[in-house]
Amino acid sequence: MSATTERDAGGVRVLWQAAGAEWAKLWSVRSTWWCLTAAFALMVLAAVTLGGASATEALRSNGPAAGPVPASEAAVSATSFAQFALVALAMLTITAEYASGSIRVTLQAVPVRGVMLAAKALVLAPVMAATGVLSGAAATAVVYALLSLDVFGGLVVLPAGELVRDLAGIGVYFALIAVLTLGAGAALRSAAGTLTVVFMLLMGLPLLLMMTGSGPAVAMSLRMPLFAGLAFMGSTDNMTGGPIPYPAGEGLAWLLAWTATVLAAGHAVLRRRDAWTAPGPYP
Question: Which residue has the higher pLDDT, 3 or 183?
Fold first, then answer.
């Protein structure tokens, strides 16, 4: 075995061990369970509200001629609300360590900053993706049961192909937003600062730009993470009054670009500012 192969194998082993440690840390604190529970609750409540509103509006506007309402579409739209419970969880995976000082132990155990950040991302992404799929499925089931009632006209439908696509899209979106939040947390270290910046990036700034009514500002807002994610998931209930004017593939590309940029910024700041391993005051 060559020296390069041995070094690569050693790097993979270190990454795997670091990911195992991050997995144990994630599930050892109560905040993980509270955030996941909140995400499920927000997903279901928001989906029921949005689905009921869509069915009521369709009946009011078109009466008996109203078209079908896909149950999973309400779950896709509900991601705009449920995502913040998962943002809080992703943020805490790194900012809580800075707050408690345990980041010293983490960086002593995994001194290569990129490996430490990659280990956290490798744990967060699948957990968030699974949460998206499961919470989306739960929300879709509740919406379908509710909108099947006569009071909503029995307009709800549940096409299998659309259901699979929507649930997969929710999972991918939640995973990428969590990794983006991890990058912001690595750069800012503060829970309050990270939450503020991520909220502005996801919701505040896009809505402010859209409210200006300026063509370039609106175009920019539609390519920020929230609207890019909604375009990727094919949402039409997205505060724009219709489908976002570019294809799902472009939406995914914008979302990946935002995630990679913020994560790279977090890694750069982490390497420059936290270039230390021994216990002691922060530099």
Answer: 183
